[in-house]
TrEMBL record:
Keyword Membrane: yes
Entry's Gene Ontology BP terms: cell division
Protein name: Septum formation initiator family protein
Residue ranges that the Swiss-Prot or TrEMBL entry lists as coiled coil: 53-94
Lineage top rank: taxon: Bacteria
Keywords: Coiled coil, Membrane, Transmembrane, Transmembrane helix
Residues that span the membrane, as ranges: 34-54
InterPro entries attached to this UniProt entry: DivIC, FtsL/DivIC
Xref: Pfam families: DivIC
Species, as recorded: Streptococcus iners subsp. hyiners
Length: 122
């Protein structure tokens, strides 16, 4: 190995300059850590509302689906209620009620025979 021909001076000025550069480096690292901590805090502060926004959006979507389903059920029940109301008014007529009972429950009068014919609606 060859010995280096460069001679380093190690006097008070060089040592003080080295100490200054090390201090500047330490300060820069401390500033970088502080800025990184602030950056992490800012990211966290933006993530929390974003998460709440997503949760709220999904909740609203679920409630809209439930609302659509309930409206559909309401329409079906309204239609069924109208049919029942029509049937009630029809059944108040004695002739219709007699025909309905005979057809639906195969009720017959005394001495009368009922024959079921396949394929005919009841």
């Amino acid at each position: 190995m060859r010995k280096s021909k460069i001679l380093q001076l190690n006097n008070a000025f060089i040592q003080s300059e080295r100490a200054k550069s090390q201090n500047k480096l330490a300060e820069r690292q401390q500033k970088n850590r502080f800025m990184a901590a602030i950056l992490v805090l800012v990211i966290f502060l933006f993530m929390l509302p974003a998460y709440n926004l997503v949760v709220t959006y999904t909740t609203i979507q679920q409630q809209e689906k439930k609302l659509a389903e309930l409206e559909k059920n309401y329409d079906e029940l309204t239609k069924e209620q109208k049919q029942v109301a029509e049937m009630v008014t029809k059944l108040k007529n004695e002739d219709y009620a007699a025909k309905y009972v005979r057809a639906k429950y195969q009720y017959s009068k005394e001495g009368e025979f009922v024959y079921n014919i396949p394929g005919l609606p009841k």
